[in-house]
Amino acid sequence: MRRDYVTMAIAAIAIIIAGVSLVKVQNTNTVQNSKVDTLEKIKQTGELSACYVPFATSIIKDPDTGKLSGHSVEAIEYIANQINAKVNYVESTWGNIVADVASGRCDMSLYYFNLVPRAYTLAFTESLNFEGTTALVKTSDSRFNNVKDVMDFDKAEYTVVVANGEAGHIFVKDNFKKAKIEVIDVEAGDALGFLTAVSTGRADVGIVSAEGGNDFNKKHPELRNVFAKNPFSLNPIGYAVRQDDLKFLNFLNNSLSMMEVKGLTRQFEKKYDAKVIYKQEQFITSEQ
Length: 288
Description:
The protein is α/β, with parallel strands linked by helices. It has ten helices and 14 strands.
């Protein structure tokens, strides 16, 4: 009888150990399976997903239909068409797009500033071009008639408005010490709406990416684009993917390189009158 109890106890322990081992194996498999190979997924499903924030001439969203256009959209559509794939677009915000890509909500981001903290989480393609930064003020505000340097706005009596996670926000966070900074969490679909704070007088100046500033200024002539011809604080622009998605990153880099050599990238940019910088020392417009 006593031997039977011992045998049963040993059997029970063995079952418990086997169960624990099985759970560990399942957990390991779950972790491994979470690392999705995007290229393989595209081959199996014929689809890829791209996160975006509506942004000037690169990603334009029709307010009535929701249809997307722009030079960055045409570029990714060209790549997808070459491999018979469909692009599913996922709208995001400047503050959320890193997490959206890293978590797998989308496979990649379109046209995104490459900064060190972002590169720590995401893997970026080679730079497509460079994007400068500018400042918008009221045309009627004579206080800023002679401003030549963006640091002239860093004064305690000025309120500066920026969008959370956008180029302007990054710049003032790193450089401004005195001005009152108002950081706006922009809603999806209204990435430049924060600049209305300047139009209404709630803020003295809005600091924003150069293309975003140009685009907003066209629709708001009551504002003046201070650095329209000489944007400051250049940032490299590229597509971004998850850090471990190296096959997909390599595919995008090769595709973009081919498009650049064939002149397709500049063709798309010229179509939308994009003002982009190809070299840090030279500001190039679509007419050149």
